[in-house]
Amino acid sequence: MQRSGGHRTRRPDPPVSARAEGAGTAGDEALLAALRGGDEEAFIRLVDGYHASMLRVASAYVPSTAVAEECVQEAWLGVLQQLDRFEGRSSLKTWIFRILVNIAKTRGARERRSVPFSSIEEAQAPAPGMRFTPSGHWLVPPASWEDIPEQRLASAETMAEIGRAIDALPPSQRAVITLRDVEGWTAAAVGELLGVTDANQRVLLHRARTKVRASLEAYLGRGGARR
Description:
About 55% of the residues lie in helices and about 0% in strands. By secondary structure, it is mostly helical.
């Protein structure tokens, strides 16, 4: 999925860590040893692998790409400063992103009013226009796009529209859909990183997907009507 502004194109992370959740792996240990030993090439590989993804995640909490870049830079400094404190109880990737999220949430709270992930209201009754129940069943069936050419659905313009819809989401929904649907993280990894329950994550993801789909339907001229 490609995001607008040139910073939403997903690319696979290089094998700097074997997974996004769980305890540290042998690969993590080798990389960590190289980083602690001052191996600049290892750090460059780490930055190349995660920087773009970190920018997308930071953007969920702060109001501009410039501020998100500052958060990412601060996170990398934090990683270097805290390497000796990494204990391997999670993967190196999850630890790095946790540093980033903490920085971005703090910065976002200063830049604008933030909504906590633990918000009870956000995890309960369906939002206006919501198409899913909390258990995942459709309240309103989706419009059919079978007659829309695949080239249009996959076009740069359509991808940009999806990006704009994601950018317009509340921070909590935006972070979850970015990690799950843009970055491809598992539910378990997202829950570990953001500290959200499975139920809350499902609701946040359902709401985010509903809003993005509604925006896409309007863009494609369906207006939510099934054909």
